[in-house]
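From the pipeline queue, job 12 of 40. The input is one protein chain; the requested action is below.

Action: predict structure.
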Amino acid sequence: MTGEPVTTLHDFQLSMLNAMCTSAPAEAAALLARVGATREEAEIAEKRWWFANPTNSFRTIAEYADAWGAPVAERVEYPGDREIRYAAWDLPFWPCLRIEWMELEQHSVLFRKLLRQPGHQRPQVKSAADLPAWSWTWDEFHDGSLGQTDFVDGWGAVGDLAVCRAIDPETGRDRIYWADFDWALLQRIERAPDAFEWPSRCRAQHK
């Protein structure tokens, strides 16, 4: 796919959605219908994102601005003698969310984060068991409001796994939950098997 046009923001969101067709199929199918796209188009967009030249290998925020248009928010920070630039784009597929890229001075890799847009609040829940698909971001899950959390496996894109220790509303007892994330967005949460030992990071235990 080398030489194809860069991935637009619309196609990037389609590429995000492709994996979610497996991890959160009902929500993904409804979103595909809303944006007038098919699963096949999502699959093509995902392949282009990972393999097309050069969108997934951009090294500066300016390159994303050229491909996606002007960001909705920008800032620059100067910790010590370093410069760090941030730029964010709203995600129309998920109207309360945005993606932010971080560019470090003299660093060849950009860092990506999924954020909630200003003015939007995450859904409030009484327990981890109440979290629906797409309700919380990775950072919101790990902010401690549910209880102790830990990272288990993943590379920050598709199929990331985290765990949290929280009260089981059915028994009132302490329980460990598995949480699956795609693109830093929660896809599903479920009780971990009793044999799961905190804070084991063995992906093979998660079926």
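Job complete. Helices lie at 9-23, 25-35, 39-51, 61-68, 138-141.
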